Queue: 2 jobs
Job 1
Amino acid sequence: MNPPSRRSRWCLSIFAVGLLYLNCAVIWQHLAKRWQAPALPISSKVAGVFFLFGVFANYETNNHELVLWGYTETTSGRTNGWKPLPTEEYFPFKPGVRQQLLWSRKFIRVQEPERLWRAWARSGKQILARHNRTHPETPISQVALENRTWPRSPAGVYILQKPGTLETNFWIVATNR
Amino acid sequence: MTQPSCNSFISGWNRYWFQPTRPEPLAVFRILFGIYLLCYLGSFANKVILVFSSQGVVQPWYLPEWAIPSATLAVWLYSCLLLLILLFILGCATLLLTPVLLLFYLYFFLLNLAVKDSAYDRLNLIFLFISCFAELDAAWSLAPTFVKHPGQIKLITPWAARLIGWQLCLLYLGAGLWKLHSPQWHESQFMYWTLIGVWASELSFWFVNLGWPMWFYGLIGWSVIVFELAAPLTFHLRSTLKATIVLGILFHVGIAVFLNIPEFFNCVAAYALFWPPDELAKLGDKVASLIVKSPRAPQ
């Protein structure tokens, strides 16, 4: 093989040092916060790319789940026109990934609540349009997200998801009324 | 720093990053990483329109509206992505192909994968970005030079292999330090509660219901921390390399079967880069001789 030229070696070396620096800066950023030490200079957007290790960081004894609801004029009973929509029909993934997409987790991590609401509104409109396209016999006019929180149990994920232990929040994210 | 020290550092640096080495580890990485990408991105095959087109539910990240494809275009683009991955595995013109593959992956990532904020997606992009500058097809590929002279060894620059290896080591180190400085990870209960969350598999629930004492969960947590903190060193020492690889595979198998996250097997693909090239070459020759009998040119 032809060994790399001096110029190539310089370019590749700078690239390598840059990549290693970015990784180290992100790792140090989190330690520096704890130790109240100065952080290494790095843009927050770039840091977001290299923040690869903050998995399962929080101690959770509760499960959280977003569930989809659609408002239809044809439903009767206690739900007042609201009916649950099959979440996997719009987010066909395993439960953990489905929740990551439903929560639009990226906006939560970067702490941009306005973009989070816009993302939810956008998803809501798409779900509304898709539902009415694929289920014309039961059209919906609104889409809502219900945040369910309930205690974890070794007996199963949903064992304690029942009245008394279940807390909910309800947000309408899309409407064409 | 004195002049002799400077020269010594520079020559050591050049030796570490640029002294020609055998191509087999990078070739194995290409094949394993390519198979991983095919499995991971191939899993979207039955939901392309729903996940990647304007007729589905997409949450683009820094992608304009006009870039969201129609259903037909989404299927075409997705098919191209899978074809690129296949050619990547086969080692076809990788210097040209890898940047195109990176662009395609980046496009689908921004279209509807970035918003879920998964570290494995960003790690895939980093691996692919480094691979754009690597000689991935110098061994076990359909590159014309290798196909015509399979017995001839073409030495390559180890730069890309070393950098991907260090990226992996820093991922583990960062994760280990993160956990070491997170008080919750020091509590035995942390692992217990994680194994019965929404990510947990049925196997995980079965495992927890065997009634392990709390200190056992603490032991699992601390063993993960120790493995991750030690990995940058143990991957680079011959005496500990094989044990580290075995533990790493067990670690990722555990994540896959207990927490339903097989997507971090991209890390396992990179383990090949630490393996001694001569041993990989011998292993590759054995595998090749089982498939095709061909004479090997003397070195």
Job 2
Amino acid sequence: MNKDIFLHKLEELLSDLPEAEKKEALEYYRSYFEDAGDENSEKVIEEPGSPEHISEIIHRDLSEGRSPDYESFTRAASPESKKPFNKKLVMGLAIGMGALALIAAAYFISGPGNTPAESPSSVDASDVEPAAKKPTPKAAGPKEDKPSSTPEKGPAADKEKPEPKEGPADKLKESPAADKPKVGPAAAK
Amino acid sequence: MIFNTGSALLDAVVLAVISKEGEIGSYGYKITQDTMKVIDISESTLYPVLRRLKSENLLGVYDKAYDGRNRRYYYLTEQGYQRLGEYSSEWKIYSEKIDSLLKEARYE
């Protein structure tokens, strides 16, 4: 495999991703090969299954928000990409069952206790339905939203500047770097 | 290496490697080489890590012209420095415990 085949393969594997996501990955590797020079590029390219491995991790991150473990970095890729789907399914089921339980509970509370004369059925219905319905819209897409691709260029750093320090500042004492707020790329541009 | 590198430790190493370059930051090839000096990762798979750290706003990026092309530089954001500080103090606690246990252990 040479550089071009590597890049082509990666492009194919990432073809279902948003354009910006794909472009960024390809540019990273193009640039990497330039920096590495031909001889070192060979090493990268000869790693078995690299484009597949790269693509698998990116896909997993996009669907889960985070890779569970990076053991896969030193070993062969593990076929765990089905996880997010199962998670969604389980969550949907749980919420659905919760809704059913709510309906049942509402029915028992308002149903047998009251005589039909005292509470017209329309009252029952309005009591029951909103409670039972609430969870369902959530079930439709609990973890759907993918992280959108972040803005590309540097100036984001300006935004970070005014943020006050907070949280675990006491923890940071030992890390020398953590004290200085950095304004990223401005100096380098 | 016989010890696996968990994702938190890999994140910590990558953040630390980039932090050493200050506000200019560092680029893919150099970050990879520097990381490989410390832990055993396969050379091509650092991109997903950088991508994720960037999407978590721990890293920022900018492009700089080099040799007639663009090179993308990664630098630590405020949040990135904060996270690195947390990793650093967690690691200190963890490694000291393991150290002292291994020192006290009997090897016979």
